[in-house]
Task: inverse folding
């Protein structure tokens, strides 16, 4: 691709993030017009991606990007083929609708600008996931979706349920992301590929590797947590604690689809193994059953939809891993269809909630007259979800049945699962898209009327898209689902499904599905009771396990930290020094690295001896000191003596520093000692003294031996040579020590002074806490910390 | 600590040490010295002043909160590294200019500003610690 095209695509990726910055500004400047203006940003990205459709449909794979961390071979690069382009279009297209919808839904909310900001960040992260070429870049965006979804799910942070759901989603999907990171690194290690495009070029390397199993499990860990496969499905329904625009987006085009995207993405290099074609359908099938049964159980519109998302994701994973000739086509078509109808239905559910004040199915009915547009959009979504013509959902269902009906006994089992799951989802879909609108009028908390244009424009547009995709199925399959399936399969696939059904097994199965579904829909209340009984029998599920897990973790860490950190300083100091001594002495002895006994250096003069004697005297004085202050001050004697030795033996910089550090440590130690209110004299028993003395001697011995050993190693003066010859030339300085600190290794020093600063802050905070507590104790004031605030 | 001699001498001593610390800081590139040592000397100067005259006197003399000083030092050091962006060279690459002031060529560089940053961080952090520790004794 040319440089300007690359820049345009990266601009399309950047626009959502720009939107995140602009939304507070736009809300301030333009008020209620802001959503319309902000929606232009994802719209531009959408147009940018749509422009590329003909090229990708012709079989081109577009890549490009910039170097990010060249030394590690990491590029900020994108890969646009059928799969990622269709995904990018879904993300930006539905994203545009969601921005408008959120504008309407959150109207009047104090934090609507912030909400839209988060939403944009979320959109950008998801867009990044699907168009990334670099494996690590994919991971970065992957985790970014977890973080931004955390912000969104927990948006209503005053409510405990929101906070719990947000934390749960973050723990599950963020943890899964870390597993994925391990998988990505392993894949890089096995294949040597840094990016997806390089990975695809490696062919069978990954499949043939002995580490395939490990890579497989790690990738699944990432994908299953993100896409809410059983037993990680619990976070997804809880995530609908988020405001409805988030749910609509999260469930349709983003986040939860990321896992499916990853599996589809890696299908060409990881798929088609016995492991892949067994594990994926199994987990997918179980998720489909669990999700659809749980969906039937609910009465809350959003809950119903949320659980059907779980079911749909199961269906997609199942089809992706099926390994049958047409299975990928079914998976791809269903994915697109699902994005369109689920987004629409969630927005419809939000509209109903927004306009009537309730989401409870049992308290809704007869809304068709009051909300005709919403009704139309809801019906479109339900029909598509049910897999009826003339919507794209029909094509998807035909594709799935066609693929499964031609297979083995193994496939037949999944065919049954798919029929039951589809029928249940059909019933639930109509429960959301039809049931609230028909029947006798029920009095709702708010007087029902049609919602604002901002809100119904989204579901209507998605419904129309689903309709057009089915009506012009030839064009749709040629430009979207076909290239997408080809990218997933790793070979050119053509999809011929259209609205005109072939008389055959798939059609018969569709009829069967519809019949079961209608029966379930008619007896929804009975079905709900049955599902309810079933799950009550089964007892608590993963959602409860999660709580137990978190509680257990907290309890365990509490125990451990109580054991390791009893809060007694002596214990820490003793433990630290014993470890130091042990590490030094054991390693020196066990590796046979004991130094030879050193001879007295030849250039050691009388003056040196005097200073050495001073240090010894200081040491004796410390041991004999009867109170702490004397001990501290006499400890300084040795420090100064050593500093003088440094000076005499040609290290003035070091000795300067040693002087100052000694002075200040005596000052600070004295201050600390006086603050601690210790008994001025030493009150240890003799045994304790001997014990402490032994540790001290062991540490000192260890260090001495180590240093002596280190000086015995032949001195490599390559660095000395380098710095001596270049410090003047490159860094314009004669003092090599200083030049190294501030010039050659300046970034290190920057880090170190940051550490000094943070340590200072931490110590300050510790002192403040103590001071605050004692002030509270003395005066009983409510807020003692404020008094401590220094200007 | 409350002897008359000490109290009389301390301000002069501190002032001299401060001056010396700046001298050490600036000569560091070619002779023993530099930001870290200079900072320690300055902190010692403040400690002496504090022991003689009390914490509030030091705080008044410093005018800024010590942590503000440390923070601005860190910022200065980081910014010195960023100057290299404008020359399209890696972070922290040194830049030198040689303006002639009063007929004397004075080499100024991002290295110097970086070292001044180090000096400020050390003075600020350490003095804030001992000031906070000492303060408790007086309240």
Result:
């Amino acid at each position: 691709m040319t440089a300007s095209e690359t820049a345009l695509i990266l601009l399309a990726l950047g626009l959502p993030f720009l939107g995140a910055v602009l939304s507070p500004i736009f809300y301030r400047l333009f008020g209620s017009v802001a959503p319309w203006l902000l929606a232009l940003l994802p719209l531009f990205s959408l147009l940018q991606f749509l422009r590329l459709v003909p090229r990708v449909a012709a079989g081109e794979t577009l890549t490009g990007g910039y170097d990010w961390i060249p030394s590690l071979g990491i590029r900020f690069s994108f890969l646009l083929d059928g799969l990622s382009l269709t995904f990018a279009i879904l993300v930006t297209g539905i994203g545009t609708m969601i921005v408008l919808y959120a504008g309407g839904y959150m109207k009047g909310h104090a934090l609507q600008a912030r909400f839209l900001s988060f939403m944009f960040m979320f959109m950008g992260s998801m867009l990044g996931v699907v168009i990334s070429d670099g494996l690590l870049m994919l991971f970065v965006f992957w985790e970014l979706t977890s973080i931004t979804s955390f912000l969104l799910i927990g948006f209503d942070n005053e409510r405990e349920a929101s906070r719990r759901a947000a934390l749960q989603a973050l723990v599950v999907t963020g943890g899964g992301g870390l597993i994925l990171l391990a998988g990505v690194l392993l894949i890089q290690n096995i294949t040597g590929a840094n990016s997806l495009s390089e990975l695809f070029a490696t062919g069978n390397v990954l499949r043939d590797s002995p580490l395939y199993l490990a890579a497989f499990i790690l990738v699944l860990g990432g994908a299953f947590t993100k896409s809410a496969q059983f037993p990680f499905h619990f976070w997804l329904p809880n995530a609908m604690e988020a405001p409805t625009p988030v749910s609509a987006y999260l469930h349709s085009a983003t986040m939860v689809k990321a896992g499916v995207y990853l599996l589809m993405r890696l299908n060409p290099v990881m798929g088609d193994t016995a492991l892949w074609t067994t594990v994926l359908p199994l987990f997918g099938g179980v998720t489909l059953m669990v999700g659809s049964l749980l969906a039937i159980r609910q009465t809350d519109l959003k809950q119903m939809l949320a659980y059907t998302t779980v079911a749909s994701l199961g269906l997609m994973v199942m089809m992706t891993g099926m390994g049958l000739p047409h299975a990928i086509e079914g998976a791809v078509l269903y994915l697109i269809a699902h994005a369109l109808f689920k987004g629409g239905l969630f927005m419809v559910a939000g509209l109903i909630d927004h306009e009537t004040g309730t989401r409870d199915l049992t308290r809704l009915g007869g809304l068709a007259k009051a909300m005709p547009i919403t009704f139309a959009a809801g019906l479109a979504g339900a029909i598509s979800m049910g897999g009826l013509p003339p919507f794209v959902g029909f094509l998807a269902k035909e594709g799935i049945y066609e693929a499964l009906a031609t297979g083995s006994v193994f496939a037949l089992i999944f065919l049954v699962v798919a029929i039951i799951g589809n029928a249940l989802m059909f019933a639930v879909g109509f429960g959301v898209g039809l049931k609230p609108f028909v029947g006798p009028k029920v009095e709702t908390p708010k007087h029902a009327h049609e919602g604002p244009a901002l809100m119904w424009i989204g579901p209507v547009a998605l419904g129309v898209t689903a309709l057009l995709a089915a009506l012009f199925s030839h064009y749709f399959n040629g430009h979207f689902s076909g290239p997408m399936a080809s990218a997933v399969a790793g070979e050119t696939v053509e999809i011929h499904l259209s609205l005109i059904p072939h008389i055959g097994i798939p059609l018969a199965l569709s009829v069967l599905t519809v019949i079961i579904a209608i029966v379930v829909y008619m007896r929804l209340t009975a079905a709900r009771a049955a599902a309810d009984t079933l799950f009550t029998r089964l007892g608590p599920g993963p959602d409860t396990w999660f709580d137990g897990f978190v509680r257990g973790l907290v309890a365990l860490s509490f125990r451990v930290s109580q054991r390791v950190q009893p809060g007694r300083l002596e214990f820490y100091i003793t433990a630290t020094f014993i470890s130091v001594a042990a590490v030094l002495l054991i390693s020196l002895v066990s590796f046979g690295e004991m130094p030879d006994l050193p001879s007295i250096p030849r250039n050691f003069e009388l003056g040196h001896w005097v200073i050495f004697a001073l240090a010894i005297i200081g040491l004796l004085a410390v041991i004999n000191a009867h109170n702490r202050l004397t001990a501290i001050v006499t400890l300084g004697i040795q420090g100064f003596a050593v500093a003088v030795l440094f000076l005499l033996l040609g290290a003035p910089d070091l000795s300067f520093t040693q002087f100052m550090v000694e002075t200040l440590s005596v000052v600070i130690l004295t201050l600390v000692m006086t603050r601690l209110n210790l008994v001025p004299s030493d009150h240890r028993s003799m045994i304790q003294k001997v014990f402490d003395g032994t540790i001290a001697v062991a540490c000192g011995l260890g260090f001495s031996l180590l240093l002596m050993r280190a000086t015995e190693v032949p001195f490599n003066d390559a660095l000395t040579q380098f710095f001596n010859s270049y410090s003047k030339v490159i860094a314009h300085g004669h003092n090599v020590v200083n030049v190294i600190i501030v010039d050659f290794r300046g970034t290190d020093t920057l880090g170190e002074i940051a550490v000094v600063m943070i340590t200072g802050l931490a110590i300050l905070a510790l002192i403040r806490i103590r001071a605050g507590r004692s002030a509270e104790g003395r005066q009983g004031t409510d807020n003692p910390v404020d008094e401590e605030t220094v200007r | 600590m409350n002897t008359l001699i000490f109290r009389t001498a301390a301000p002069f001593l501190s002032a001299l040490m401060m001056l010396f610390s700046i001298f050490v800081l600036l000569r560091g590139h070619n002779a023993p010295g530099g930001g870290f040592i200079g900072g320690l000397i300055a902190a010692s100067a403040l400690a002496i002043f504090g022991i003689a005259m009390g914490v509030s006197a030091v705080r008044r003399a410093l005018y800024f909160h010590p942590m503000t000083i440390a923070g601005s030092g860190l910022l200065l050091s980081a910014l010195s590294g960023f100057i290299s962006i404008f020359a399209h060279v890696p972070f922290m690459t040194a830049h030198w200019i040689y303006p002639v002031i009063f007929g004397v060529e004075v080499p100024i560089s991002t290295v110097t500003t970086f070292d001044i940053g180090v000096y400020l961080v050390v003075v600020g952090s350490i003095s804030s610690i001992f000031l906070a520790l000492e303060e408790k004794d007086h309240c």
